[in-house]
Amino acid sequence: MSDQGSFFQRDRSWHPPAFTPQYKTSVLRSPQFALLSLENTVSEMTGPHFGHSQLGPLDNDLIRNYMQTGEPIGQRIVVHGRVLDENAKPVPGVLLEFWQANAGGRYRHKKEAYLAPLDPNFGGCGRTITDEEGRYRFRTVKPGAYPWPNGVNDWRPAHIHFSIFGHAFTQRLITQMYFEGDPMIWQCPIVSTIPDRNAVERLVAALDRNNTLPMDALAYKFDIVLRGRRSTFFENRMEGN
Amino acid sequence: MVQKLDMLKESPSQTAGPYVHIGLTPNWCDITGVYPEDLGRTMVGLQAKGERIVVTGRVLDGSGTPLEDALIEIWQADAAGLHNSPIEKRGKADPHFTGWGRQPTDGATGEYRFETIKPGRVPYVDGRPMAPHIIFWIVARGINIGLHTRMYFADEETANAECPVLARIEHRSRVPTLIARRMEEDGRAVYTFDIRLQGENETVFFDV
Ligand SMILES: [Fe+3]
């Protein structure tokens, strides 16, 4: 069974390093000692399981799930894709949680100070679980770009934050999705914490005209890859694998 | 040229940012009416087996300032040392204990707080028992990839001394960064576990 072996080591040169001075907040929040490498034990290879019964019918519809007086303002979009592992196998039963600013680039959060207005009909959070083929889909409005205090004139490109639960706690991942064709991706100090341009491109969702809902919503396709596991055909550990 | 391996690369991590609560604990940040309860808020059912404990502490940056915007998830075994996970093959975990919790650090004090149970022992890869521990995963603005660490219990001296994971720590002066202090509060054990991201007594973080 390929769901029994230990996980491939994380390629730390592909992920952003902890210390990235152009993203100023990382300077005091980055560990300076080397991480202690640890073989996967059963503590890391297990993880919580989330079932479809835990979700509400509007959880994957950010256009409707916070509606008070009508639908939110903004470009209507569908975001869909697959969750795969590094062996290119679909991962079913993955809990995806997402959050974003409204169409004007404003977050619904007590610490948010950007002058763009709140949208009374937009909360900005949603969640879904992948199906048997690792597929997911949700509906929302396209978030706006927003300025943030880092340099005096730094702006975030439009993005949606994603939190992803694989089957093991060691697969736990948080990342962000960007939108094809946005020139601001390449000017962002947070995007540029990722050292490799090819890695950044893995976070840019493609405009997907074939899945666009005619006269309704544009579609973007965003695939996510979680860590893969070794096959255990030749492993014969009795404990803790 | 050689044949291609057809492997994919893991999606690169990005920071959770300052507003991670909107997505992961929306009720806590006043986005109500979308989810009935924030996931991971309640770990322990009324009939759960084991000693009820509180785990609390702060996450401190390199200047010693507590983070007021961090989010912590914990994952642990039940009182018998089994995980409430479909991947757990050693037995059936206590159905009244989820093993997984999620809490923000407080926006004013920087403190986090979990109500959980004391875990049993879990085997290391070679079968030797590890000391009881709780897996921590920390994300926040300024943290580019989630940090994994482990909390151990100060009152488990014998088990800690023989834990194969703690034994892996070369710089022995860093072992205490993983051990939570025990106090009693209204007859219940309260463990305090501060996480230092940087500086003197930087917590040991793991590449798991
Ligand atoms: Fe953001």
From TrEMBL, chain A:
Signal sequence residues: none
Key word Oxidoreductase present: yes
InterPro entries per record: Intradiol_dOase_C, Intradiol_dOase_core, Intradiol_RC_Dioxygenase, PCDO_beta_N, Protocat_dOase_b
Family to which this protein belongs: Belongs to the intradiol ring-cleavage dioxygenase family.
Alphabetically ordered keywords of this record: Dioxygenase, Oxidoreductase
Pfam families (alphabetical): Dioxygenase_C, PCDO_beta_N
Top-level division of the source organism's lineage: Bacteria
Protein name as catalogued: Protocatechuate 3,4-dioxygenase beta chain
Domain Intradiol ring-cleavage dioxygenases stretches: 46-228
EC identifiers of the protein: 1.13.11.3
Enzyme class (EC, first level): oxidoreductase
One example GO MF annotation: protocatechuate 3,4-dioxygenase activity
PANTHER family: DIOXYGENASE, PUTATIVE (AFU_ORTHOLOGUE AFUA_2G02910)-RELATED, INTRADIOL RING-CLEAVAGE DIOXYGENASES DOMAIN-CONTAINING PROTEIN
Domain Protocatechuate 3,4-dioxygenase beta subunit N-terminal span(s) in chain numbering: 8-41
From TrEMBL, chain B:
Domain of life of the organism encoding this protein: Bacteria
InterPro entries assigned to the protein according to its UniProt record, in alphabetical order: Intradiol_dOase_C, Intradiol_dOase_core, Intradiol_RC_Dioxygenase, Protocat_dOase_a
Pfam families: Dioxygenase_C
GO molecular function terms listed in the Swiss-Prot or TrEMBL record: protocatechuate 3,4-dioxygenase activity
Keyword annotations from UniProtKB, A to Z: Dioxygenase, Oxidoreductase
Stated family: Belongs to the intradiol ring-cleavage dioxygenase family.
PANTHER family: DIOXYGENASE, PUTATIVE (AFU_ORTHOLOGUE AFUA_2G02910)-RELATED, PROTOCATECHUATE 3,4-DIOXYGENASE ALPHA CHAIN
Record's protein name: Protocatechuate 3,4-dioxygenase alpha chain
Native source organism of the sequence: Mesorhizobium escarrei
Gene that this polypeptide is encoded by: pcaG
